[in-house]
Write a structure and sequence with these properties.
With 89 residues, this protein is mainly alpha-helical. The protein contains three helices and two strands; from the N terminus they run αββαα.
């Protein structure tokens, strides 16, 4: 059962029990559609992959800028200290 997809598709669901299924605030079972849940789960999976990829790209860009800044604005001794502090081996 993909809980994130269920919560997104069915806003009245407040809890999901792997035995009982999706439940509303009163504990009533919410009827769900397995095909829709599966499709939404795929959409969420792709969105997460893109977000993870974007975050890694941003981290890489920040590291590149930091390395450039370190190499152009600091003495070699200062740069080495920063490298050891931020990127310990």
């Amino acid at each position: 059962m993909n809980h994130a997809a269920i919560y997104k598709l069915y806003p009245n669901v407040v809890t999901i029990d792997d035995t009982l299924g999706a439940l509303d605030k009163d504990g009533n079972v919410v009827v769900t559609n397995g095909a829709n849940i599966k499709a939404e789960a795929e959409v969420l999976k792709v969105e997460k992959q893109h977000a993870d990829s974007d975050e890694l790209a941003m981290q890489e860009e920040i590291i590149n800028k930091l390395c450039f800044w370190v190499n152009t604005r600091m003495t070699e001794e200062e740069a080495e200290y920063v490298r050891k502090t931020i990127f310990p081996s």
